[in-house]
Amino acid sequence: MSALHDCRDAFSRTLIELADHDERIVAVVNDSVGSSKLGDFSKRFPDRLINVGIAEQAMVGVAAGLAAGGRIPFVSAASCFLTARAMEQIKVDVAYSDHHVVLCGQSPGVAYGELGPTHHSPEDLAWLRTIPGLTVVVPADPAETAAAVRWAAAHDGPVFLRISRMGVPDVHAPNVTFTPGVATELHPGDDVAIIALGTTVAPSLEAARDLADEGIGARVLSIGTLSPIDRQAVVNAARQTRGIVTVEEAYRSGLGGAVAEIVTEEHPVPVRRIGLDGFAPTGSTHWLFKRSGIDPATIADVARHLVEEG
Questions:
Q1: Looking at residue 273, what is its pLDDT?
Q2: What's the pLDDT score for residue 1?
Q3: Total domains in the fold of the chain
Q4: Rounded to whole angstroms, how far apart are CA atoms 222 and 25?
Q5: What would the 3-class secondary structure string for the chain be?
Q6: Both 123 and 253 in a single domain?
Q7: Fewest beta carbons less than 10 Å away: which of 76, 127, 196, 240?
């Protein structure tokens, strides 16, 4: 098995590199310096890190004000608190006002594992993809995380970055270029398409390799941007395979909902959605993944049955 890496390390390292060359970059946190791995940033730029305490609504509002004043704020907090407590400010102060604010949802999905449903954020993708003008980015590994951070710093508009906590293997080239709205095909195949994002890309790739040993061609698409989604890549997958399996560390109305909408409108084919369903219980992240079917064996089984049914 490939070595596993924490995408937060790539996030914090890249942010420091950018801040070294651009004094407009600031970080805004809610007592989340440690969990965001921004300790080195705080030491390097003590006057460019604003800690508002446990006040997420104020945190987003402060960031919008900083953006209006010419700064580039990176708002970094656990996704469960950032998106649930400050949704109105995200919608109105950031997206509607079209401010260059980069919202960094740390430790999303079920990354907090044993802390339970209060700290899980399986609903964030479903919520955020409905907000007009907000680019929703879900990197799959450290290289894509670093590239997405660089892109977000240069993009003149609101962005949400979903940054995973659990270790993930490298699935992209070290010098990958992030382009919003463009999916990456990581494994070829014309029998079935597996569309995944973030932490679910690696198990989807493993499932595709196992299926290849059985003579089943599973195309794996890594969706780095949920909104805007690569609509053409989804349509091509629908037209060129027997059906689609979506995989996400979130409620199935996030990526699964977005793909199902496109397929229904453009080229109806069977769609099977893998993800969380209801409040996840307390348990390790690994156990919660397997319980939700986010493991290579289950993904391969769902894809195999879809091909057999077709």
A1: 98
A2: 54
A3: 2
A4: 29
A5: CCCCECHHHHHHHHHHHHHHHCCCEEEEECCCCCCCCCHHHHHHCHHHEEECCCCHHHHHHHHHHHHHCCCEEEEEEEHHHHHHHCHHHHHHHHHHCCCCCEEEEECCECCCHHHCCCCCECCHHHHHCCCCCCEEECCCCHHHHHHHHHHHHHCCCCEEEEECCCCECCCCCCCCCCCCCCCEEEECCCCEEEEECHHHHHHHHHHHHHHHHCCCCEEEEECCEEECCCHHHHHHHHHHCCCEEEEEEEECCCHHHHHHHHHHHHCCCCEEEEEECCCCCCCCHHHHHHHCCCCHHHHHHHHHHHHHHC
A6: no
A7: 240
Do 140 and 261 share a structural domain? no
The per-residue pLDDT for range 77-98, each reduced to its tens digit, is 999 999 999 999 999 999 999 9
DSSP collapsed to 3 states, 274-295: EEECCCCCCCCHHHHHHHCCCC
d(CA 204, CA 246): 9
pLDDT band at 45 (very low <50, low <70, confident <90, very high): very high
Please indicate, yes or no, whether residues 29 and 108 belong to a single structural domain of this protein: yes
Instruction: Note if the pTM is more than 0.90.
Output: yes
- For the four alpha carbons of 33, 36, 37 and 43, in that order, the dihedral sign comes to negative
Provide the residue type at 278 as one letter.
G
pLDDT (tens digit per residue) in 172-195: 999 999 999 999 999 999 999 999
pLDDT of residue 134: 98
Q: Are residues 247 and 129 in the same domain?
A: no
Encoded amino acid at 7, one letter: C
Domain of 205 in residue numbering reads as 184-309
